[in-house]
Amino acid sequence: MNTWITITDRFSRLTERGKDFNRRTRPWRKRIALFLAVVGPGLITSNVDNDAGGISTYTGAGAQFGYTLLWSLIPMTIALYVSEEMCARMGVVTGKGLSDLIREEFGFRSTFFVMIAALAVDLANTVAEFAGVAESSQVLHVSKYIAVPLAAIAVWLLVVYGSYKIVEKIFLVACAFYLSYVASAFLAHPDWLTAAKATVIPSAHFNAPYLLMLTGLVGTTIAPWQFFYLQAGFVEKRVGPRQYKHARLDVLVGSITCMVIVFFIIVCCASTLNAKGLTSISSAAEAAQALVPLAGKWAGFLFAFGLLNASLFAASILPLSTAHVICEGMGFEAGLDRKFKEAPTFYSLYTMLIVVGAGIVLLPKAPLWKILIYSQVGNGIWLPIVLIFILLLINRRDLMGDFVNTWIFNVVAWASSIIMIILTLILMYAAVFEPASTGLSSAFIHRLHWFRSF
Amino acid sequence: MLHATEILGAEAHDSAGNFVGRVKEMFIVPDETPNRISRLLLGRGQYRPLVARYDQIGSVAPGRVQLCAEESALELYQPNEAWLAMRKDLLDQQIIDTNGRKVVRVNDVDMQEHKTNGSVELRITEVGVGLPSAVGRLLHGIVPPMAIRRLQAKLPARSIRWEFVNLIESDPLRRVKLKLSSERLAKLHPADLADIVEELSPAERQSIFDSLDEETAAETIAELDKRLQTQVVEKLDPEKAADILEEMNPDEAADLIANLAPEKSREVLEEMEHREAHEVQELMRFDENTAGGMMNTEIVVVGEDATRGEVVDYIRFHEISLDQLDNIVMINREAVLAGTVPVARLVLSSSDERMGDLAFVPLLSVKTDANENEVYELFDKYNLRSLTVVSDQSRPLGTITVDDVVSRLMAKV
Q1: Which of A54, A120, A202, A383 has the smallest CB count inside 10 Å?
Q2: Distance separating alpha carbons of residues A338 and A346, to the nearest angstrom
């Protein structure tokens, strides 16, 4: 009897310890926490794609061609996912940023030119983001001379004085604000059946304006700088190969949400502007104003608010990403978790980009449209180079080990890269040589007009 | 002084004046001399490359190497893992500046010529990480070397002396072959070392931990952020991990083990010495966010009647770690907490004074299940440096020290 009590007592103590142990390790809660710890870079990067310029292009696409461009969103999602996933994988496996890897594997000079391109192109893009702020503030009846400096200061303070955790949380909230486009779309009462059909069934139209708009869509959605930001994000979060699955899911969710937002923007414009014959709408702000009589005050307000959010969001990430990329590649210290004194080049570059970017928008007679041409050309030159660097690096077994591309993935990745490269080259050609001949129809010209309206 | 970039790609001629090939790579053989360029790799197009040894080099100038041996005297090139390659292992790679305590990227490598009977030895003096070396890399081959030199002279120099350079090699086997020591790293403050390894990629980090002694590794791991701690420990083999965890404070070790994958934590606990493993397991029973989860069980417990001399002897005899010994815990005859004696008071007292007379009032303690916020409030209110944690029967179990409080609060900011 006594022995029995001792045994049961011992046994119950052991189970007790087991329970305690489990309480400490918390398998399911830990799993969710792990996923949340990884989430961020993919979702944020993909959403920043829908920046001021992007939204103008989507608006134009919807206004001009109605639902007929919606089918391109599915292949674009795949291309976006494939290219971003490679960067995520590289960051997770090597623990190094993209520019670090380019520097170590391709030497100083290649890196230097990639960095110069980054600086020039991103500066032009930053100007575009602040122009987006100016534009949306006009719809909301605020002078751009107040809105733009305020935005610049807010963005600068956030990044310089916020820690990575805080900054990322604010960015995630900004991602949620993109839902205002979903609301606008619902307020516009679109023909959902037609929209759904147009998304699933491809309908090619072989005329120049249509093709150029298609190119514009691809060009604004897949921008070279985003790869650097994405990879740096995963590296800075210290996501290791063990959490690769979470990282991949993050990228997948990001790519899909990004495209879902694009879908709603296009649907909103198609069902209102295009249906009422307002096909020459060339900017998001015009669209917002045109929406008021068609779909109500709130639809227009939400549309403008979405643009403001997108511009602010991209205006804080673009300069940040650029400063990161350049410092990493050139061997300066970088990162939000450092203080100004520890990483002076990083913070100076970041500040310069914001000050110059916002400053140019405030100049009364700035040649904004020229800057836009150069930014587009720069993106065009830069994207193929970056994509090729990525594809070369990801297939290096000494870097990636078993995480190199499978051959199927390689086929998809090379194919989508080559298509993207061809499309951006077309866009570049159109931008430089024939801006007039493409008429008011190209995405590019839309953006030109949008700039000239300042 | 010469730059590595000026010699890489240079034409090499033999003693008869014939063109031999171009310098494709420079090797340092750490086994022989850690700072000497011991071999030059001479590429010859489709022919097998040759190797010129340091005593076969006659003179060196930017873009031109004159050998003091016949071409036929040069050896054919055989790859050797124990040779440190300039282009592959140094240029553009990250190194640790052990003097400046940070990770930097190499732009160029500076060398000094040493004339020894008839030949010239190149000895590495500094590693260029600043603007001049960057300009050199960019303009090399486009602008004549002299013009580059003139430009470089005008720019603010930033370079690291070769003896302060610690190379990073992610392959542990090669690390051994290259004779890379972590001696200098081990001399850094663990907090600085932690900052440095946080910047490296996981593989590089791992190879550094593999090469550190257990004590330094334990101190450094304790300074890492939580995610990294688990990453690093999970990749170590269980035996080494156990040795490192034994060196850590039991409370930190318990937190760390609790965050490991269940499989791994079991392995590590099995490998640990019985006493330490037991202590850690006891601590793991407590929730991380309570006083029990925060406490450190390495404490000195003495009776009220013990004299100062006895206590000092006890501490000496048991080799108790002194870094966090602020207070000595005192118990009465019922083994209930009776007070704490600050070590500072111990210093000033005479050797026959009783602990009961030295004890600090008020008597402060928390129960193991006290919420972490209660702990913070007590520390704040009474300006504590340590606080005793007691069981339900008021028996002392451990102490919470102020460094744990600070790092927890910092994690929340």
Answers
A1: A202
A2: 10
* DSSP-H helix ranges across A95-241: 98-139, 144-161, 164-177, 179-187, 192-200, 208-221, 225-236
Query: Residue A453 pLDDT > 60, yes or no?
Result: no
Answer whether A109 sits within 8 Å of B137, measured CB to CB: yes
Chain B interface disruption, residue of A24, A236, A238, most B CBs within 10 A? A24
**A334 to chain B: closest CA residue:** B199
pTM over 0.80: no
Predicted-assembly ipTM surpassing the 0.85 threshold:
no
Q: Please state which architecture CATH assigns to domain A67-206+221-366+390-405.
A: Up-down Bundle (1.20)
Question: Six-digit token pair at A362?
Answer: 């405030």
Cα–Cα distance, A246 to A238 (Å, whole number):
13
Lowest-pLDDT range of A74-83, A303-312, B188-197? A303-312
DSSP annotation string for B345-405: HHHHS-TT-BHHHH-BSS--EEETT-BHHHHHHHHHHHT-SEEEEE-TT--EEEEEEHHHH
Give the per-residue pLDDT at A374.
64
A206, two tokens:
């072989």
Say how many C-beta atoms besides its own lie within 10 A of residue B64's C-beta. Answer: 14
Q: State how far the Cα of A328 lies from the Cα of A87, in Å rounded to an integer.
A: 16
CA distance A246 to chain B (A): 15
- Short-list B26, B139, B135, B24, CA closest to B89: B26
Contact status of A240 with chain B (Cβ, < 8 Å): yes
| A400 in contact with chain B, both atoms CB, cutoff 8 A | no
Residues of A in contact with B134 (CB under 8 A): 108, 112, 330-331
Give the minimum alpha-carbon distance from B79 to chain A in angstroms, rounded to a whole number: 17
- Do B138 and A330 lie within an 8 Å CB cutoff? no
Number of other CB atoms surrounding residue B318 within 10 Å: 9
pLDDT in tens, B53-63: 888 888 888 88
Where is B257: in which H helix or E strand? helix B250-259
In terms of Cα–Cα distance, which of B122, B94, B92 is closest to B26?
A: B122
Look up residue B398 and give its two tokens: 């451990």
List, for residues B203-228, the tens digit of each pLDDT value: 888 888 888 888 888 889 988 888 78
Of the candidates A92, A392, A413, A364, which has an alpha carbon nearest to the alpha carbon of residue A236? Answer: A92
Q: Which fold has domain B2-162?
A: SH3 type barrels. (2.30.30)
CATH class for the region spanning B181-285: mainly alpha
Rounded mean pLDDT of A319-336? 81
B197 Cα to chain A: minimum distance (Å): 12
Q: Identify the closest residue of chain B to A401 by CA–CA distance.
A: B203
Q: Tell me, what amino acid is at A155?
A: V
Beta bridge partners of A1: none
Measured between CB atoms, does A402 come within 8 Å of chain B?
A: no
Average pLDDT, rounded, for chain A: 78
CB-based contacts of B324, cutoff 8 Å, min separation 6? B249, B296, B298, B386, B401, B403
A69 falls in which pLDDT band (50, 70, 90)? Answer: confident
A residues 91-110 closer than 8 Å to B (CB): 94-96, 103-104, 107-109
Q: Would you place residue A439 in the very low, low, confident or very high pLDDT band (cuts 50, 70, 90)? A: very low
Residue of A nearest to B106 (CA): A331
Please identify every stretch of chain B with a pLDDT value under 70, giving residue numbers as ranges: 361
Ordered by start, the domain boundaries in chain B are 2-162, 181-285, 301-412
Residue A283 and residue A56 in contact, taking contact as beta carbons nearer than 8 Å: yes
Whether the CB-CB separation of B35 and B53 falls below 8 Å is answered with: no
Q: Residue B185's closest CA among B102, B242, B105? A: B102
Tens digits of residue pLDDT in B333-346 = 888 888 888 888 88
The CATH number, out of the four listed (3.10.580.10, 3.40.50.300, 3.30.70.360, 3.40.50.620), of the domain defined by the range B301-412 = 3.10.580.10
d(CA B249, CA B299): 11
